[in-house]
Every structure is written in structure tokens, then in C-alpha cells.
UniProtKB/TrEMBL annotation:
Transmembrane segments: 230-249
Sequence ranges assigned to domain Polysaccharide chain length determinant N-terminal in this UniProt record: 4-73
Source taxonomy: Bacteria, Bacillati, Actinomycetota, Actinomycetes, Kitasatosporales
InterPro entries documented for this protein: Bact_polysacc_biosynth/exp, LPS_length_determ_N
Domain of life: Bacteria
Span list, region Disordered: 138-158, 440-465
Protein name: Membrane-bound polysaccharide biosynthesis protein
Length: 465
């Protein structure tokens, strides 16, 4: 799988073959989420709306939202509430404000109970309105001479001056006096219109009077993240971590799978491939120790990243493959034809293939047959981590039997070195593949013969050098 694209069928195969460990990881994630929810107390959020009458630009609304959640407003609210054990600095992280459509500022307060959340939101909204009114009043009083009231006084003085000038002018005796009186009246009218427009555009009048739109509604549910959300998030996070971990491990797996890669790792040629029928729910290889039992408990004692076994042909077709391997060995080796068949421990498919190969070699053909002289095979199992092969006796070499993708290149190279240390030459490699067996089998199947043959042959346990 290291060079293949990850497809949905790969994910489905992972869930089918690793459902036990993934279910355990999901349960652990749910427990972790529950533990987090116990450590974090429940939180409740209430919201109060403040209306800003008049015409406001978007940037001005954002400024007012910042003022509503400012430290000055929150400190005033904290001083009014006087909650024991809760400082003003803690309330800063529990208050937020946002500008919405319609010139409305949403003030939200979060607390450990619905009642406190409601009180906090209402109090911050009231302090915000009071502080905004204070800012508007102070800015108006700071520059009275330039304010609208001073301008109105100046307009009144100008009107009186205009009246005095109109009275002093010659009342209609000359054309010039009539024109002067007309111009003065126009000036008076223009000043009155300007004052009217100034009153309509007064920013203090239009933008004053913020209104709290009623008390905040008491929250009926917890604020996110709730306990249910934490449990679901923990379960999903651990499940995704398990899936990603499986994919990363499979992507990093560089075990030889093709015949060329296996032959290069062992330094010998592949003599053929054989099929080993397995049941869909075949028992797993028995392991020893607590680690093997723990792996069986988690369901990780079998590989998940290998494709599903293809459907096997009939028994005769499978036996033909074994006989062809025996024939190649007969043609390649000089008499006496004796070989060690080396199988790595834990490779159940290869072990069964080696036993079947030895059983086929024991079925000596008739003297007149052209297949006379099949080699005598002795099966040994060696440790993949520290292999030890028996010293050379009457054997003509070593035949390595393994399943594709079961061992790393380093482990295969170690087996080849162990064979060389024992004085053996690796004469060939046989690759075994698992296939699905037919539901019905006749009596006297090759698997039964293979088991008997394996029991009758000598075995050497692999151990440290």
C-alpha cells in the first residue's frame, strides 16, 4: 500500500479488519471527553440588546461594540455586582459585544449559572449605556463656545443687528433704501434656515439616548461546548487519530511485495508462487506470551492493508503449482536432492505452504514417470528477528518460503545471512499467497496431508546466535 492511492475501499477494509481497536479508541476518546466535561464546569450565556437610535456608520457601530466590552464598562459592572470569588479580570473574559444589523449592539455575559449570566449581561448593558452617555455629555461641555448653543446666541445678536439696520434705513424714500431693506430680510431668512438645519443635524440630539431593549432572557441550556459535544468531539478525535495512524503506518510500510523485490532481498530467484486456501474466519496463528494475547484481544494480530484473498481454483489446480515447484527443484539440483525449507516464525501462510510442498515431494511418482526424483524437503522455522539455520549436513541448499509483504527487506537479508553462516546456498524462493477456499471439500484434502507431513518432519526452533 506504500505506493498506492488511499481509496474508500482501503478505508472500508480498515474498518472491517480493525473494527475492534477502532471501537476501543472511540470509547477511550468518549471517556476523555467526559473527563474533560467533568473538569470544566457548565457555562451559560445570556444576551442583552442595546439600540442606538439615529444614523450610524459601520465603523462607529464597531467602536461602540468595543466600548461595550471595554475594561472600564466591565470594571463598573463588577463593582456593582460584587460577586465573591470573582474578580474584574475574570469577568473580562466572560463579556463580549458585537454589532448587528439595525444599529443594535448585542452584549453577552457568560457565568456558571443562568441567573448570574442574566445579571451579568444586563449590568454590562446598563453600564455601557451610562458610560456612552457620559462620553457624549463631556464632549459637548468641553467646547461650549463652538457648540450649537453659542451659535444660536450669535444668530440672535445678528438678527437684532439686522433689525437695527433696517430701522435706521430711510423707509422707502429711495430705491437704495428699499434694496437694502430687502437684502437684510433675505439675510435674516437665510440665518433662520441655517439654524433649523443645524438643529436637525445635531449629532448629540440624533445619536444620544441609547436604549436597553429589555432584560436578557434567562438561558435554558449550557453554552458550547456542552458535555455531549465534548464526548462526541473526543470520540471523533480518537477515531480519526486511529485511522490516520493506520494509514501512516501502512504508507510507511516498505516490506517487499513483488517477486523481484523478494528475490533481490534474498539474493536468489523466485521458483514460483503457490496458493494456500484459508477460511474467511480462519483461526489466527497462536502466539505466546502476554503481548500476543493482548494483540489478539485488540484484533491487531492480523494485517489489514493486504487486499482481500481472491477465490481459489480447484484442488487440482493448486496441486499443479506445488508439483511444478518440485519439478524445478529436481531439474536444478544434482543428486542427492535434499533441501532445507526455511520459514519465518509467525508466517502461518508460508508455514502451511511449506508443509504442503513437503507433502507433494513425499508423494514419490512412479518409476516410469518423468517426474521421478523429487527432492526430499525438511521444514524448519527460524526467528525473523535473529534467525539461526542448522548447519549444513546432507542438504544441497535452502529453499525459502514466505508470503508476500510479511517481512521487511532487512529481515529477509538476515535470513539469507543466517543461511550463509550455516554453509547453505539459497537455491530459490517460493512465494505463498492466501486464497479463499471453496465451501465444500472432498475427503483427504491436501491440507490434511500437509499437516501430517509437517508433523513428520524435523523442526528447528529459531533462537539467538
Amino acid at each position: 500500500m506504500s505506493d498506492d492511492t488511499i481509496r474508500l475501499v482501503t478505508i472500508g477494509r480498515m474498518f472491517r479488519r480493525r473494527r475492534r481497536i477502532l471501537a476501543i479508541l472511540t470509547l477511550l476518546g468518549a471517556l476523555a471527553g467526559y473527563g474533560t466535561s467533568v473538569l470544566l464546569p457548565p457555562r451559560y450565556t445570556a444576551t442583552t440588546s442595546v439600540l442606538l437610535p439615529g444614523q450610524w456608520e459601520q465603523r462607529e457601530l464597531l467602536t461602540q461594540a468595543e466600548i461595550a466590552s471595554s475594561s472600564t464598562v466591565v470594571d463598573r459592572a463588577a463593582a456593582t455586582l460584587r460577586w465573591s470569588g470573582v474578580s474584574a479580570s475574570e469577568l473580562h473574559g466572560q463579556v463580549s459585544a458585537a454589532a448587528t444589523d439595525g444599529n443594535i449592539i448585542k452584549v453577552s455575559g457568560t457565568a456558571d449559572s443562568p441567573e448570574r449570566a442574566q445579571r451579568l449581561s444586563d449590568q454590562v448593558a446598563q453600564q455601557f449605556v451610562s458610560f456612552a452617555a457620559q462620553i457624549a455629555g463631556s464632549s459637548t461641555e468641553s467646547d461650549t463656545s463652538a457648540g450649537p448653543e453659542a451659535l444660536r446666541q450669535q444668530v440672535e445678536q445678528t438678527n437684532r443687528s439686522i433689525s437695527d439696520l433696517a430701522g435706521a434705513a430711510d423707509p422707502g424714500r429711495t430705491v437704495e433704501s428699499v434694496q437694502a431693506r430687502t437684502e437684510l430680510e433675505k439675510l435674516r431668512t437665510a440665518l433662520q434656515d441655517a439654524m433649523k438645519k443645524l438643529d436637525e443635524a445635531d449629532p448629540v440630539t440624533n445619536k444620544g439616548g441609547m436604549v436597553v431593549m429589555g432584560p436578557a432572557a434567562r438561558p435554558t441550556g449550557e453554552a458550547p461546548p456542552t458535555r455531549t459535544q465534548l464526548i462526541a468531539a473526543g470520540a471523533l478525535l480518537f477515531l480519526l487519530a486511529g485511522v490516520v495512524g493506520h494509514l501512516v503506518a501502512a504508507r510507511a510500510n516498505r516490506r517487499p511485495r513483488t517477486e523481484a523485490e523478494i528475490a533481490a532481498a534474498l539474493g536468489s530467484a523466485v521458483l514460483g508462487t503457490v496458493d494456500v486456501p484459508v477460511e474467511r474466519h480462519a483461526p489466527r496463528t497462536e502466539g505466546r506470551g502476554a503481548r500476543a494475547r493482548f494483540r489478539r484481544l485488540l484484533g491487531v494480530d492480523t494485517r489489514w492493508d493486504v487486499p482481500a484473498a481472491r477465490t481459489s481454483g480447484d484442488e487440482a489446480g493448486r496441486r499443479i503449482r506445488y508439483r511444478r515447484v518440485c519439478a524445478r527443484l529436481r531439474d536444478q539440483l544434482p543428486p542427492p536432492r535434499r533441501l532445507l525449507v526455511v520459514v519465518a516464525d509467525g508466517d502461518d501462510i508460508a508455514r502451511r505452504a511449506a508443509a504442503q510442498l513437503a507433502a507433494e515431494a513425499d508423494r514419490s511418482p512412479a518409476p516410469s514417470s518423468s517426474s521421478k526424483g523429487y527432492p526430499v524437503l525438511r521444514v524448519v522455522e527460524v526467528s525473523a528477528s535473529r534467525p539461526t539455520v542448522p548447519d549444513r549436513g546432507a542438504e544441497s541448499g535452502v529453499l525459502v518460503v514466505l508470503s508476500a509483504g510479511s517481512r521487511t527487506a532487512a529481515e529477509l537479508a538476515g535470513i539469507a545471512e543466517a543461511c550463509a553462516d550455516g554453509g547453505h546456498d539459497v537455491v530459490g524462493v517460493v512465494v505463498a499467497g492466501a486464497v479463499r477456499a471453496r465451501p465444500a471439500r472432498p475427503a483427504g484434502t491436501p491440507e490434511q496431508d500437509a499437516t501430517a507431513a509437517l508433523a513428520g518432519h524435523a523442526h528447528a526452533s529459531g533462537g539467538p546466535v
